[in-house]
Specification:
It is a single chain. With 326 residues, the protein is mainly α. Helices cover 63% and strands 5% of the residues. The protein has a four-stranded mixed β-sheet with strand order 1-3-2-4, with helices on both faces. Helix 8 crosses helix 10 and helix 11 runs antiparallel to helix 12.
Length: 326
């Protein structure tokens, strides 16, 4: 394995340039897919790297349940700085597992709490709650809900929000939230959040994807309403109405399961983007542009990370197999 086993821990740095440039230069849909796939692969490879290092580190601890042969010199020589890297990987991997588990539990709890807040309401695609607090968000279906009714989820909005918007702005709001449901944006958000928990170097991608899914929904809403200015005005007004708590429902905090109409931001950038012509969707940027160089750099880093993880896993498996007595 050598030093290659450590590469997946630092190769997420190659995605930083594309995160910023994709946000500015690519269509929001393309940027969301690109950054989510990149973050997911890099996060998975980073976790595999920690798991391989943990095997070597755990084998060195006295009283460990692993075979004695796993602590032999030929196994330890497969990992550079085996004593430091191996033992440091144990708490690091535990932190990753704990963080991802906590995120998934919170994700499930938020969706369940939101579902309980709608108990007793008619099973329609739009749920209007009699609440003076202004909010609007998309609530995806849970697995068991999909079998009960057709659709991908529900748009939840309060009377406090609807009463302060014009008819055109309401259309923009509903189109925006339905775009979240149709494209399953909560899955993109969940994946990048898990990747950021797996490797802190991936946090910039999480921030950018949180923005690009909103821009993606904005563009879809503009296509439905046929007025980019109306959508921009609706976003600005909703943000002012929501104040310091955008996209928050009764007993529901912002989470991976929900996407508020006025959040996340920054809202001024979303409004400014809608006041310009619609972005064009390019399949793949040219290499002779800044964003093209950044995309290819991120793609190369992701490919090297995946190959390094696979090579290290196979190599360590063969070494451990040879060191384990029959």
């Amino acid at each position: 394995m050598g030093v290659f086993v450590l590469l997946p821990l630092v190769l997420p740095l190659t995605a930083w340039p594309v995160a910023r440039l994709a946000e500015q230069r690519l269509h929001p849909r393309t940027a969301t897919w690109l950054l989510t796939v990149t973050a997911a692969v890099l996060g998975l490879c980073s976790t595999v790297c920690l798991a391989l290092l943990m095997v070597v580190g755990t084998a060195q601890l006295p009283g460990n349940p692993l075979p004695d042969g796993w602590s032999d010199d030929e196994v330890r020589e497969a990992v550079p700085y085996d004593e430091i890297a191996g033992q440091a990987a144990i708490p690091a991997l535990l932190a990753v597992v704990s963080g991802c588990g906590s995120l998934l539990w919170r994700h499930h709890r938020v969706r369940r709490r939101a579902g309980r807040s709608l108990a007793g309401l008619p099973r329609r695609t739009v749920a209007v709650l009699p609440d003076t607090v202004p909010y609007a968000f998309a609530l995806p279906d849970r697995g068991r809900d999909r079998g009960r009714r057709r659709g991908r989820g529900r748009v939840v909005v309060s009377t406090g929000m609807l009463s302060r918007l014009t008819s055109g702005e309401r259309r923009a709001l509903f189109a925006h939230e339905r775009a979240h449901l149709t494209a399953r944006h909560h899955r993109f958000l969940l994946l990048v959040q898990l990747a950021a928990r797996a490797n802190p170097f991936l946090r910039p991608l999480r921030t950018v994807v949180s923005y690009t899914v909103e821009r993606w929904a904005d563009e879809e809403a503009a296509g439905v309403v046929r007025s980019r200015r109306t959508v921009a005005r609706a976003i600005g007004r909703a943000a002012l109405i929501a104040g310091a708590a955008p996209g928050v429902g009764p007993g529901v905090g912002p989470g991976a399961a929900l996407a508020g109409f006025a959040a996340p931001g920054p809202v001024p950038r979303r409004v400014a983007a809608l006041l310009h012509p619609a972005p064009t969707a390019h399949a793949w940027p040219s290499l002779f542009t800044a964003v093209g160089v950044a995309v290819w750099t991120a793609a190369a880093g992701t490919a090297i990370s995946a190959l390094s993880s696979a090579n290290s896993a196979v190599t360590l498996f063969l070494v451990l197999k040879a060191a384990t007595p029959l």
